[in-house]
Amino acid sequence: MLKLFPWAFRFGKVHCLFHREMERNQTSVTEFILLGFPLDTKTQMLLFGLFSLFYVLTLLGNGVILGLISLDSRLHTPMYFFLSHLAIVDMAYACSMVPQMLVNLLSPAKPVSFAGCITQTFLFLSFAHTECLLLVVMSYDRYVAICHPLRYSVIMSWRVCITLAVTSWVFGVLLALVHLLLLLPLPFCGPQQVNHFFCEIIAVLKLACADTHINETMVLAGAVSVLVGPFSSIVVSYIHILCAIRKPSLHFWLW
Which strand (E) or helix (H) includes residue 34? Predict the structure, then answer.
């Protein structure tokens, strides 16, 4: 029985050293490398020019929309109010993703800090969720305007419009915050290469040295709730709009 103690001591020492090494490796990853587009230099420069052009056009187009809405008092209506929010989200959405992609095209091996990568993931999810929710709100606005035109000003008052816009932003940020809180405790011990052109959450989860089943389930549930749910609401709204449009023509043929 006493002969087992040296072996137990050695096993315990090796086990302790193994855990220390694992902890050291898990805390060693402080930055990531975005693989981006594995193409030749000429193609990367071509993509850099195209994406830069699209990025500038996106900012200019949405900036013009915001300027026209703010300057023209005739556009101070609920529809253009929601459109201005959608333009802001579109600009923020592009700014959170495209600049890093352009840098990656010029310097493919340039690393991204862990904090920067997590921040980009959070902003991307926040703006994506908010955009989907704003599209639902805009479809509801058009439904009320066409199906209930006499009650439109009462239903879509400025108080209601502001509440709907703020709710879209708040829910978009809260849904992204859930993913962030589940992502931060995960250990990352290598490899540090993200197989994407930005810090997309699924690509980042693949680098974690722990079970990410809960994270993946939440990503799937969030995608279903934010994509399928709003899409179904938009489809239902436009079905009601089409039915309301067809009613006068049916009455005309009956007469």
Answer: strand 31-34
CA distance 48 to 65: 26
What are the tokens at 51?
A: 């994406």
Task: Tell me the per-residue pLDDT of 200-246, one tens digit each, with 9 for 90 and over.
Answer: 888 888 888 888 889 888 888 888 877 777 777 778 877 877 887 77
CA atoms of 204 and 184, how far apart (whole Å): 11
What's the pLDDT band for 28 if we cut at 50, 70, 90? Answer: low
Residue 72 CB partners (closer than 8 Å, separation 6+): none
Residue type for 178, please?
A: V
Q: In what order do the strands lie in the sheet with 112-113?
A: 112-113, 31-34, 193-194
Cβ proximity of 98 and 51 under 8 Å: yes
Per-residue confidence (pLDDT) for residue 59, from 0 to 100 = 95
Q: Is 38 exposed, middle or buried (0-12, 13-18, 19+ CB in 10 A)?
A: exposed
Q: Residue 77's Cα: distance from chain center in Å? A: 28
CB 155 within 8 A of CB 76: no
